[in-house]
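Case study.
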Amino acid sequence: MKEKMDYTEAFEELQTIVAEIEDGEISVDELSEKVKRAALLIKICKAKLTSTEEDVNKILKELDSGADEKE
Amino acid sequence: MSETINNKTIFSLLEVTKSIQKTLAERYKTDFWVKAEMNKLNLYRHSGHCYPELVEKQGEKVVAQIRSVLWKDDYVRINNAFLKILQEPLKDGIKILFLANITFDPVHGLSLRILDIDASYTLGDLEKEKQATIQRLQLEGIFDQNKKRSLPLLPKRIAVISVETSKGYADFIKVIESNNWNYTFFHMLFPSVLQGEKAIPSITRQLASIKKVKQHFDVVAIIRGGGGDVGLSCYNNYILAKEIALFPLPVITGIGHATNLTVSEMISYENAITPTKIAEYLLQKFHNFAVPVQQAQDIIIDESQQLLSDQNIKLRSYTQLFRSVVENKLLYNKSIIKEQIQSIVQQSGFMFKNERSSLLKIIADIQKDAIVFCKTSVLNIESLTERIRSTSTGFLKNNNLEMEHIKKNITNMSPEKVLQRGYSITMFNGKSISNVSDLKTGDEIKTIILTGEINSTVNTIKEKETT
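After joint prediction, the assembly is written out as follows.
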């Protein structure tokens, strides 16, 4: 779940944490957990901005095969 | 002139064609305006002349067709007028209103010579096509279809339909590749013709390709740049516009021109004026994501520090409050204890004094009572002594009398007295005999009487019968 998390979900969860922390809904007891979680979410989001996983060769292969009719 | 052979009048081919030429020339003396569809322009690059194919259709059926010629000079003039008014060159498949005359050449046959073409007529026709496309898309309910697609938060995988060598493509790549924020895009080029009639099948084909691998892409960008505002009416074409409208991914157009929007641009998810603007649009999407993330980071850091420092301050003030409360409590208790000590000392002093005085009183009482008791006892002893004395004297007197009496009795009982009264004592072996069984005949016995002793031998023994 840690690595597989969708960046959209990560972004939304991050917004929720920010809202909670801004509204003062987070106690000192929860703070450490929330900050840790937020750090992870920020990492996922930032990684998404600066990386890509697509491979041109793979796409070309799929184009050539023509068998792939995913509509 | 004709000759007669076997009663037959015979013309040469040249005579006939010349006759036709003459007849037509006499019949069609003036130029006239004709409207028709120019199916093919048939421009010969080498000579610069055109041989347009003109047709009239009813539905899809060709009901009239004629060849025509457009000489090089006329073509250049008319083409310039088209470019100026329509932003389109003369091309295949447009409706034209043209000034012509009929020419007949014995070698080349019948054709219409085009002298002029009314560009505004074609413009109106193109506008009509554009409006027809819009209406049809609206009628089919797909005009807004592509706008309803959802663009991912980060549109980072871009299928680009463009020309590799075009300025627009280069601009686009430059902006998204060398952005200052290290945003990384994945883009792949699907090369296509981007203007003129050929753009329609070319773009459509590439859209079909992208559709096959659409799971690898977030967005399609149709990018054209440079080449002026010419040959863009293809973007009003119904087939192309429909493909874009129905495309499963958002399509962004950056066709780059200054004239009215084409239908393809109207129905695309987003239309940018230039390729650079498309790139900026995509970068903006990244900003829209990156900025809140960065802000989130800043806010979380600030707020957590604030929260911690607030708690620290609160804790410190509670500690101070606690200390002062405790100190007060201690002082208060200390003073209470001091009071208690004093009170205990005082109380115990009193108690000692009281106890001592009551003890002294008890001692005095005991002394007094003891003296009284002793005195009473002495008196009692004295009286008892007196009583013992007097009692014992009487008792002794009585006893003496009794003793006298007993003595008298004892005297009376003495053997001498008994013997005096005639009694005797029989003895055997020094012991008095009272039982005949102690004796047997022949034993020597002694009998004592008052005045002496008699020794005798036993003759007979007669035992007294017991009753």
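Observations recorded in class. The interface with chain A takes residues 152-154, 156-157, 181-186, 188, 209, 211-216, 248, 286, 289-290, 292-293, 295-297, 299-300, 303-304, 307-308, 311 of chain B (CB under 8 Å). The mean pLDDT of chain B is 90. We will return to this complex in the next lecture.
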